[in-house]
């Protein structure tokens, strides 16, 4: 089924009353997420986000599961640790340093970064390297919109990203000293400018919760979830392949590309099938899987849009 559709929006999936209540909550005084840190003009732009051009032939994961079952090691390694611990992270004010091979390097505050950019809702599959999956309605824009603002120099080949590093507010940093903090990730430039690659500022009709990567996170739907770096504070254009956290920690298990590929198993488990996160039944604070499994499609189902990026590459080698 094609991922494109102009008629579906999260408000069409959830209860209209619940949706309107959420919109009123945001418009009123949202104290969580980026909304309260933005100017009124940018807030208005967020409230006017466009209908989605993307859909999937699967049920959208409940908001309670998607915001409670997370990997964000800066707040702990348990799946519910991010929700329990991330409220300590201050996201106002927020700025993103953009440097390297760009025409207009600088430290951009959130208003400047988002000004003039139209937001849209995109319903994407989300596939974790741990072999579980969700379907999430993100709100955001193509990453390429930022590059239009700062300009890309002709010798740029890669994009490096960095997550916030603030041990006093991110309790998982101190409890995981083996990690080479701060968390870093990277993409090849042609991957980064692909229209599917987005910067998310919200989900489920609201601004991003801290545990899901507020105020700005990357979403690359054809790659395993750890590539979609959260709480971004730095973007660097470079001519050399950047280091990435999980590749530094376990290079035999996590490659630079990390495309979803059912034909290449993780050394410790199969990637051929995935467990679907579903329902809102909790046991010991963790959402239960809904019991269903599905075959994992190549590139997480986005092969039509991205397979050409890897033409001629041995995808069993470049994982």
What CATH first level would be assigned?
A: Alpha Beta
Rg (C-alpha, Å): 19 Å
What is the 3D form? globular
How many beta-strand runs?
Answer: 12
Helical proportion, percent range: 10-25%
Classify the secondary structure makeup into a structural class.
Answer: alpha+beta
The topology string of helices and strands comes to: HHHHHEEHEEHEHEHEEEEHEEH
CATH architecture heading: Alpha-Beta Complex
Here the CATH topology equals Sulfite Oxidase, Chain A, domain 2
Strand content: 15-25%
Uncertain runs are: 1-33, 280-288
Our count of domains comes out at 1
Count up the helices.
11
Distance between the termini: 25 Å
Major sheet size, sense and barrel closure: 7 strands, mixed
Residue-averaged pLDDT, rounded?
Answer: 86
Q: By CATH's scheme, which homologous superfamily applies? A: Oxidoreductase, molybdopterin-binding domain
Walk me through this protein's architecture.
Helices cover 20% and strands 25% of the residues. It is of the alpha+beta class. The chain has one domain: Alpha-Beta Complex (Sulfite Oxidase, Chain A, domain 2). A hairpin with a 2-residue loop joins strand 11 (273-283) and strand 12 (286-295).
């Amino acid at each position: 089924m094609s991922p494109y559709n102009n008629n579906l929006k999260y408000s069409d999936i959830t209860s209209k009353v619940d949706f309107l209540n959420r919109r009123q909550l945001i418009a009123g005084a949202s104290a969580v997420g980026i909304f309260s840190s933005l100017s009124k003009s940018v807030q208005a732009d967020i409230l006017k986000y466009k209908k989605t051009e993307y859909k999937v032939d699967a049920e959208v994961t409940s908001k309670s599961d998607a915001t409670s079952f997370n990997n964000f090691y800066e707040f702990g390694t348990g799946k519910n640790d991010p929700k329990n611990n991330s409220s300590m992270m201050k996201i106002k004010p927020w700025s993103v340093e953009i440097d390297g091979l760009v025409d207009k390097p600088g430290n951009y505050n959130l208003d400047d970064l988002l000004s003039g950019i139209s937001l849209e809702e995109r319903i994407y599959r989300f596939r974790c390297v741990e072999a579980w999956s969700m379907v999430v309605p993100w709100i955001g824009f193509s990453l390429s919109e930022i590059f239009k603002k700062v300009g890309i120099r002709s010798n740029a080949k890669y994009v490096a990203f960095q997550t916030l590093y603030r041990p006093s507010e991110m309790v998982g940093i101190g409890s995981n000293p083996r990690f080479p903090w701060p968390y870093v990730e990277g993409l090849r430039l042609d991957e980064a400018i692909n229209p599917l690659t987005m910067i998310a500022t919200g989900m489920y009709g609201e601004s991003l919760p801290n545990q899901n990567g507020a105020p700005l996170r990357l979403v690359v739907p054809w790659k395993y979830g750890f590539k979609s770096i959260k709480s971004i504070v730095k973007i660097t254009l470079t001519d050399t392949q950047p280091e990435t956290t999980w590749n530094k920690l376990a290079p035999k298990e996590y490659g630079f590309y990390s495309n979803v590929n059912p034909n290449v198993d993780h050394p410790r488990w199969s990637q051929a099938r995935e467990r679907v996160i579903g329902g809102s039944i909790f046991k010991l604070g963790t959402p239960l899987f809904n019991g269903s499994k599905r075959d994992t499609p190549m590139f997480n189902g986005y092969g039509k849009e991205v397979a050409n990026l890897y033409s001629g590459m041995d995808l069993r080698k470049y994982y």
